[in-house]
Amino acid sequence: MLAAVLSAAALLLSGCAEEKKPSAASQLPQSTCFGAFTPADLAPLLGNADEVKVDSPVDLRLTPERRGATCNIYVDGKSGVLATAERQPLGQGFFWPLEKVNPEPIPSVENGKVWDTGAAAGIACKGAKDSFELELWLSGSIDGKKAGESRALLTELMKQYADYAKQQTQCGV
Question: What is the pTM of this model?
Answer without folding.
Answer: 0.84
